[in-house]
Amino acid sequence: MTERTAIVTGAGQGFGLSLTAALAARGWTVVGCARDADRLRAATAGLPGVLALPGDVTDAAFRPALVDAAGGRLDLLVHNAGELGPSPLPTLATYPVDALRAVLETTLVAPLALTQLALPLLRAAPAGTVITLSSDAAVEAYPGWGGYGAAKAALDQLAAVLAVEEPTLRVHAVDPGDMRTAMHQRAFPGEDISDRPLPATVVPAFLRLLEERPPSGRIRAAELLAVRS
Length: 229
Hints:
Shape: globular
Order of helices and strands: EHEHEHEHEHEHHEH
Number of strands: 7
Strand order of the largest sheet: 3-2-1-4-5-6-7
Number of helices: 8
CATH class: Alpha Beta
CATH superfamily: NAD(P)-binding Rossmann-like Domain
Largest sheet: 7 strands, parallel
CATH architecture: 3-Layer(aba) Sandwich
Number of domains: 1
Mean pLDDT: 95
Strand content: 15-25%
Distance between the termini: 30 Å
Low-confidence stretches: none
């Protein structure tokens, strides 16, 4: 099997870690980054083919190092790192503008800047793919989710335009649905979110996306996981 290389941001926990582990188990080389160096290294220590590269995707000096770590080949770029914003979630009437800037920097600006750097390698790959993590908050109006939802909606549009501008690539905005993650817990402080599915249960949808390579576009993980007749 031809070796493939991926960059996964936010790989130290939650969905990013689950996807990194699944790709590594299938023989991928994965460059995983996260801000918490100790957690990232501990989480990926036993995963073959995973290079843990601590750093913040909002750091302009870190992004070139992240692309360079791919070693001259990049088949997949996954924009998983995101920022929820203040917790408890504020209404737009009271949303701190500086907090919104931080959400946009992590969720929208950094993914664009990283994609720009990665495009030459993605274009050269036999099946270059970019995946952005979307949310139902990008398309539905939920009280308190204005900042996060606006950032994800903008990221969806960025992915849609990139797909048109880079027709040789596959560009997917994937809504994974609710998951039992630290970020989701921060969105519901003090609440029991144990009924949400674990991130590992959503990973097969992303693997199917990579295997079947449908046309670029926005898709819900639940649709990929649905039993097909």
